[in-house]
Amino acid sequence: MTITNTQLAVSRIFQGARSIRRWRVEFLGLTFLASVLVIGATNSASAGDARDEAPVRALGDTFAKAFVQKNAELRASLFAEDGTFVTPQGDFLQGRTAMVKEFGPEAQQAVNGTTQAAFSNYRVRFVKPDVAVVDALLTVRSVNGPDGTIIPVIPITFFYVAVRHADRWLIEDGRAHFAPAPPNGMTTRK
Question: Structural domains in the chain?
Answer without folding.
Answer: 55-178 (3.10.450.50)
